[in-house]
């Protein structure tokens, strides 16, 4: 049943968006380093859009899947939250 939950785009899309945000941050660190910049660049804006864009997708997922099985919805939500934390960690740890 858990795998069928992740067949829903609203279940796996936030994980994909968090992964893309993590790749953006790591790519920026590899290319530009961790030095503070005077202005937020494209990488910062893209990272912000990827994380903020997950909120309505996760809300939609919870609305659609909660009635089918709260246990599976919570497991998928835990995976989504773990992916968000993984995308936030480099920014918090490196002070970007």
Summarize the structure.
With 96 residues, this protein is mainly α.
Q: Would you mind describing this structure in some detail?
A:
The chain is mostly helical. The chain has five helices and no strands. α4 (54-65) packs antiparallel against α5. The mean pLDDT is 90. The longest helix is centred in the last third of the chain and has 25 residues, at 70-94. The radius of gyration is 15 Å and the shape is elongated. It has one domain (8-32, 41-93).
Features:
96 residues, single chain, mainly alpha
* Structural class computed from helices and strand pairing: mainly alpha
Query: What is the number of beta strands?
Result: 0
Assign a percent range to the helix content. over 70%
> Given the structure, what is the number of helices?
5
The mean pLDDT is 90
Largest sheet: none
State the low-pLDDT regions, or none. Answer: none
Calculate Rg over CA atoms: 15 Å
Assembly state (oligomeric): single chain
Give the SSE order as H and E letters.
HHHHH
Number of domains: 1
Q: For the terminal residues, how far apart are their CA atoms?
A: 39 Å
What does the overall shape look like? elongated
What proportion strand?
under 5%
């Amino acid at each position: 049943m858990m795998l069928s939950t992740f067949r829903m785009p609203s279940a796996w899309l936030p994980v994909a968006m968090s992964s893309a945000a993590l790749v953006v941050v790591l790519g920026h660190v590899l290319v530009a380093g961790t030095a503070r910049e005077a202005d937020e660049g494209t990488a910062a804006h893209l990272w912000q859009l990827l994380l903020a864009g997950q909120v309505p997708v996760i809300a939609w997922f919870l609305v659609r899947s909660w009635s089918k099985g709260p246990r599976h919805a919570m497991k998928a939500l835990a995976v989504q939250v773990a992916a968000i934390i993984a995308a936030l960690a480099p920014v918090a740890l490196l002070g970007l």
